[in-house]
DNA sequence: AGATAAAAATGAATACACTCATTTTTGTTG
DNA sequence: CAACAAAAATGAGTGTATTCATTTTTATCT
């Protein structure tokens, strides 16, 4: 790892960026995303309104900035939780249980993020999202791979498509949960049901 | 079907609502969602700005209103297209091909909708979305049911969860397509791959 | 019909995201 | 260090979604 050469200018920028993200996080959690104004964030971070827009092209971009850091940790935590279980289905449920818990801790924020993720326009943001998705897929693929060596999953099963299938089910139901179509209990049960179905396959007699 | 007793008042409201939705549809298609102002729509519909907000609590709600009508037709069309094919996987691909085509016709609009669907706050809108989802699930369940009688799908497979699994894969990849992570070709291939995987099951050797 | 109440419509006023011409800070060169 | 150029920061200005006190329309009485 080459240590980045941080000029005073870049150091200041990074520090400022950190203050803005921290301020955004605090206000989003306290007042909610909608009720938080850019002015709020600017004041708390000790910068002007215009400066905030130098670091985030739109208010919603702040969501991605806030979540990117946090989510990376949550995904790791989810993977560790999964490893404590034996069967693949239990592992997957444990994995997404951690992620769902995280979202449940701050529903308004999770809802705002969910919307933002519906369509990401900015290339920079897209990279950040892709990175998080990859982090999820990688962990899921590792769980499936391990299940293969245990004989739970057939050797021919394609890792990445399987991981995406699994994530797709989780994601759809997470949306249902966040929008209030279903409660957390039903969410948990439906997700498990889908994982079992995917493992068995529709074709099975 | 009991004909609704339409008082003059309700008649006017319905007509006005129709004008607003038509105006919104036209402007969204022509200028795009963002660039369309409520004033545009109000002028074209021959009402005031305030009146538009009487029929849609927020600008984004107009998206749901516009799509609800259109989508109902598209889903029917998708189902009819599916019936022209023999195997379940081909049927599913044909089904979602029609829906994806519809979205592809107006990408900016589809993207705006995708975001809106990320979290639906209003109860009325939620009902509209639920109705569309049910329409999808019902058709998919019918296809699976038919596949059961052909022996393609095991008798024990739960219809609705299977339909949701199928839709979840489609929906995740549609998001990827609309956001520009993948192109249409890749979208088609990935969706098919997922359907095959779901049919076979991960457990299969 | 005229009077009255309820519903619907109005558009000026408000609040806030976002822009951009100007100013300030930082880095570089002689 | 002074002078200059490039980068960053600023905040008043702009446009538009949304609100709400007021006005207009519709329905229901006597």
Descriptive report:
The structure is a homodimer of 205-residue chains. Chain A is mainly alpha-helical and 205 residues long. Chain A has two domains: 9-55, Orthogonal Bundle (Arc Repressor Mutant, subunit A), CATH 1.10.10; 58-200, Tetracycline Repressor, domain 2 (Orthogonal Bundle). Helix content of chain A is 78%, strand content 0%. Chain A contains nine helices and no strands. Chain A has helices at residues 8-31, 38-45, 49-55, 59-83, 88-105, 107-118, 123-149, 159-179, 184-200. The longest helix of chain A has 27 residues, at 123-149. The model of chain A has no long low-confidence stretch (mean pLDDT 92). Chains A and B meet through helix 6, helix 7, helix 8 and helix 9 of A and helix 6, helix 7, helix 8 and helix 9 of B. Chain A binds a DNA duplex (30 and 30 nucleotides) through residues 7-9, 12-13, 16, 37-39, 47-51, 53-54, 57-59.
């Amino acid at each position: 790892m080459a240590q980045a050469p941080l000029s005073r200018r870049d150091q200041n920028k990074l520090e400022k960026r950190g203050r803005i993200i921290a301020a955004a996080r605090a206000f989003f959690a306290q007042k909610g995303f909608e009720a938080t104004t850019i002015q709020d964030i600017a004041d708390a971070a000790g910068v002007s309104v215009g400066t905030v827009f130098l670091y985030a092209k739109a208010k919603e971009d702040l969501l991605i900035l806030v979540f990117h850091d946090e989510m990376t940790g949550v995904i790791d935590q989810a993977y560790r939780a999964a490893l404590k279980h034996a069967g693949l289905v239990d592992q997957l449920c444990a994995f997404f249980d951690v992620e769902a818990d995280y979202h449940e801790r701050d529903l308004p924020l999770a809802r705002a993020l969910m919307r933002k993720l519906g369509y990401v326009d900015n290339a920079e943001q897209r990279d950040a999202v892709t990175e998080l998705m990859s982090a999820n897929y990688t962990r899921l693929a590792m769980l499936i791979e391990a299940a293969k060596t245990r004989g739970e999953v057939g050797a021919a099963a394609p890792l990445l498509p399987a991981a995406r299938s699994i994530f797709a089910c989780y994601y759809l139901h997470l949306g249902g949960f966040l929008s209030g179509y279903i409660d957390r209990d039903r969410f948990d049960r439906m997700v498990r049901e889908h994982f079992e179905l995917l493992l068995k396959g529709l074709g099975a007699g």
